[in-house]
Amino acid sequence: MMTVGETVALIAARLQPLAGIEAVPLAEADGRILAVDLVAPMPLPPFANSAVDGYAIRSADLPQESERRFAIGGRVQAGSRSAEAVQPGEAARIFTGAPMPGGADTVFMQEDVRVEPDGAVLLPAGLKPGANMRPAGEDVATGAIVLRSGRRLRPQDIAMAAALGQVELTVRRPVRVAIFSTGNEIVAPGSERASSQLFDSNRFMLMAMLRRLGCAVSDLNILPDDREAIAATLRAAARDHDLVLTSGGVSTGEADFVKDAVEGTGRMVFWRIAIKPGRPVAMGVIDGTPLIGLPGNPVASFVTFAHVARPAILALAGAEPEATVATPVRAAFAYRKKLGRREYVRASLRRAADGTLEVQKFPREGAGLLSSLVDTDGLVELGEDVVAVAPGETVGFIPYASLF
């Protein structure tokens, strides 16, 4: 069996970014993959301005030994044009964000000064030249690359583009994903359910995760345990999608037909990987379109999507690789595992009596327990070389929120 690291490396080597870009308004760019570097057409801020409400003076006039009296030579509010240049021995009343008047380069906070009855101000000694002033280009210089191609855009990236005056961004087109579940034992929510059947939860979970990654999703519903029906659906889906994602039917049971259908219509790249939960994970190619077959158990499907399907989708989308970083925390549980297999343990994060962050394992095992995903905060990642965890040891914790 391949390791998780080998699987991700194989995916990165095999899958190339899809062709096709489009320009979208800023309001629609969140979560999309930037296709062209965003180069700053102007500096940020575009003009020198005050960082505080206070009084602007020339640094040459800074009081040295004791406070000094300054007459008020002007008033500058945010959004107004810069006032006339500050004269020697004068101060300008200024407000946060207002442009610095000519000659002024230092601002005293209004809390630190004393205002005389005649309106003059007494400024204390000790302030450094340039204090409380934001120079033009302090944040971003003209011509700087502020967002690189391949970045999955976040709200703060949208804010940067807006601050630079952009109204749209050039992004890669969404990855088109066809998804279906397999199995006679499941029915769609809202359908009549026999006593021996379950409602299909995986497909809805996976569609939600796909959409969080910016994919365009085609729901092909549930397919019966029929090799020919599955093969025909795979061939049709491969013609007009960039990825086919399935749930169930990839294990070794007599009614697990996805693997056979893939081998009958295309070729298999890998079938099983050393991961728990989720060992049976298939990746194949059908008429040039990749397929990923995830396990039928909900937790196994969730974990393998996060660590196998997600890297594949990001590679197709042309996104920069996004490694999941496990935060070191203290374990509040004991656990044993097999050598050579990476395991993901569902756990809840809490703060112990001594103030240290620690994780507690979900009390029950089982890859079919949806409550273990709902009632926990993330996954403890145990590498291939780990065989046991004892309370008090440091483990790596991956919050669910960081996966999508």
Describe the structure.
The structure is a single chain. The chain is α/β, with parallel strands linked by helices. It contains 7 helices and 28 strands. It has helices at residues 4-14, 155-163, 202-212, 227-239, 258-265, 298-317, 371-374, and strands at 21-25, 38-39, 49-50, 54-57, 68-76, 90-94, 106-109, 114-115, 121-123, 133-134, 145-147, 168-172, 176-182, 186-187, 198-199, 216-223, 243-247, 267-272, 275-276, 280-286, 289-294, 327-331, 335-336, 342-351, 357-361, 378-382, 388-389, 394-399. The strands form 8 sheets. The chain has a 6-stranded mixed sheet with strand order 7-4-6-5-9-8, with no helix packed on it. Strands 16-13-17-21-20-18 form a 6-stranded mixed sheet, sandwiched between helices. A 5-stranded mixed beta barrel has the order 22-25-24-26-28. Helix 1 (4-14) runs parallel beside helix 6. It starts with a helix and ends in a 5-residue tail after the last strand.
